[in-house]
Amino acid sequence: MGYQPDTGSADIPRERRFAAFRRSERLLSGVRPTSIHDRLTELSALHEPSTDGVAAYDLDQRPDFYGDGIARTLEVRVAGLLGKPDAVFFPTGTMAQQAALRIWAERSGNRTVAMHPLAHPEVHERRAYARLSGLDAVWPTAAPRLPTAGELRCLGEHFGSLMIELPLREAGFLLPTWTELVELVGAARERGAAVHLDGARLWESTRHFDRTLPEITAVADSVYVSFYKTLGGISGGALAGSGDFVREARAWRHRYGGQLYQQWPAVLSALAGLDRELPRLDEYVAHARTVAAALARVPGARVFPEPPHTHQFQLWLPYPAKALDEAGLRLAEERGIALFWGWLEPGEPGLAGHSVTEVTVAAEALTWTPEEISEAMVAFLALLQS
To answer: What residues does the Aromatic amino acid beta-eliminating lyase/threonine aldolase domain cover (predicted)?
Structure first.
């Protein structure tokens, strides 16, 4: 689809949304917006252990210098969590994905990558893999789901690598079954292709697969994970893989301009996110099913997928996006109840006249009961109709 529901309608200034949601007493989707002062306070508080499981960090140590020190601490920890020999911090996922795909292209001698047309490099990275690295893409399927092993075997073009986005965000945060994933990877191996996981949201996929992170990443040659999409970090992510892969990735990070002098704020927030969010993700995913079921009972609503595969899913309603945005902001401003971020009208076949938002069940959503969600939606729809 290529939409970004978190941005909301262009007619609503970001400042109004930020203020309304930050002051709200209750928040159903996502995390509460924080100011610059809030984030600085959070980082300063990391000097002492907190009550929510975040460890203490020595803030009297020197800052990192071109990726050493605390930045290296984060890389080692992520490699251990993912069960890979090593990992390297990247300031952006766009840069990390380019580095990974380029490495596999050069090793295989084939600059063609098999990926989905809804994959992040196609939709949200301005096709940097093609413009900057000279790579080509082939699509095993255009259906709004991950490709099957059969589709990959029937692909009439040779490719050097397969990129699998887990979960596939634009299709509704969809995940395959474990058997489907293993078979897809096996089909890529039959073709002699390397396998790269775009695991920006891989952290929350373990419950669906009923596998640990190392078990999931073991099927791939390399994996990218994000530090801000789920963990609440400031920015950045990491590439993990074999030692020689990571050494090459470091070289490409430098060439692409990602060898930052200091990156300790992003690193500290990532470490805190690993401490705070990873232990709670299973709870988020479980409660997302409760939230989705309550929202599905709203007249005219459609939840997809049902039940959700992770703690994120799509909610569709048969109203204009601009009206939904305004009603949501009024509910937050007038009653202190913030339900959803922005809405968009992607014009999906069979859903004409419907708008969509992405629902993210995080810590603040855990206190919501189905009855409270239903009551809040009644108030939301009343504002919409007025």
So the answer is: 68-307
